[in-house]
Design goal:
By secondary structure, the chain is mainly beta. The chain has five helices and 18 strands. An eight-stranded antiparallel β-barrel has the order 2-3-4-5-6-7-8-9. An eight-stranded antiparallel beta barrel has the order 10-11-12-13-14-15-16-17.
């Protein structure tokens, strides 16, 4: 059950009055023991659970943020997976400032402007931020830095990670494995649900790439292994490729092709950096969805 902070404070004061003699003077107002500010700062990181969002509207900066942090009036956000856990010592970058009141918060975002949101307590580590103008609620899960699983967030949002580079260039193909058509593809590029691939020679400048193939792609969760993701490339020619997807670091992925038993390594080029001064470079808007589940077991030994 969610409780607005102002109501929570009122109930606390009523209960305490049963046991404590309270003197009220016209010129004196006691400061409440719990404040919105202390709740916001009770956790280092607040993960924005975008799939729990309620309402048909949107608050722009919330749609891009993986995490938010409230530190002495400054709002920090991790809007990108590349560098998450390292940028700003894990907090991300400074995206604006905030002021908190009783059960509410005013946020002045450097790109998207000012928002007034109500703050509700859902449970001991979950807050709801409600924007009355759009009639939309966002739910934040609180974590301390030393307990936050950055790797899990990475794997839980791999589709966004693939879109954070302009292209992925193949830098390694294993000697093991049977010959197959994907051996010839040296570049991949991912958008919201479409991909392109190129057989241009390694090292070709991004601006000179010719895209030879395109189609739809999908990242899947797997039923038996929460840290295993799979990737399908559905070419417009009706052929399909299926891979196990592994993250090596925040600029390198491996694709294991079970049908040929070949390992490919791709490195990201053209990182789409977040810039506070430009709307079109904020990052990839997250949508209220979840990966489909594939009932497969890990093939790579």
């Amino acid at each position: 059950m969610k409780i607005k902070i102002l109501n929570l404070l009122f109930v606390s004061l009523l209960l305490s009055s049963c046991y404590t003699e309270v003197l009220i003077e016209d010129s004196y107002i006691d400061e409440p023991a719990v404040s919105t500010e202390s709740l916001l700062r009770s956790h280092d990181l607040w993960y924005v659970d975008i799939t729990a969002t309620q309402g048909a509207g949107e608050v722009a900066f919330m749609e891009y943020a993986f995490t938010l942090s409230f530190v002495n009036g400054t709002l920090y956000a991790n809007n990108k997976l590349v560098g998450i856990g390292k940028t700003g010592s894990g907090l991300g970058i400074d995206v604006g400032f905030y002021e908190s009141g009783l059960g509410e918060i005013q946020i002045d975002h450097d790109v998207y402007g000012r928002y007034f949101m109500d703050v509700f307590v859902v449970d001991h580590n979950t807050l709801e931020l409600y924007d009355s103008l759009s009639d939309t609620s966002y739910f934040l899960e609180g974590y301390q830095m030393n307990e936050f699983d950055f790797d899990y967030i990475f794997y839980d949002n791999l589709s966004y990670f693939l879109q954070e580079y302009d292209v992925w260039e193949k830098v390694y193909t294993s000697q093991e494995g049977m010959l197959n058509d994907f051996d010839n593809e040296n570049f991949l590029s991912f958008n919201t649900d479409m991909f392109q691939s190129s057989i241009d020679a390694p090292g070709t400048p991004i601006s000179n790439l010719q895209w030879d193939f395109e189609g739809e792609y999908r990242v899947y969760d797997t039923a038996y292994d929460e840290m295993l993701k799979t990737l399908t490339l559905a070419y417009r020619s009706s052929s399909n490729d299926y891979f196990e997807l592994y993250v090596i670091n925040d600029s390198t992925v491996e694709l294991y092709h079970p049908s040929s038993e070949t390992v490919y390594r791709f490195k990201g080029r053209g990182y789409r950096q977040y810039l506070k001064s430009s709307d079109n470079s904020v990052g990839k808007k997250r949508i209220k969805t979840s990966n489909p589940v594939m009932k497969v077991e890990r093939s790579r030994k």
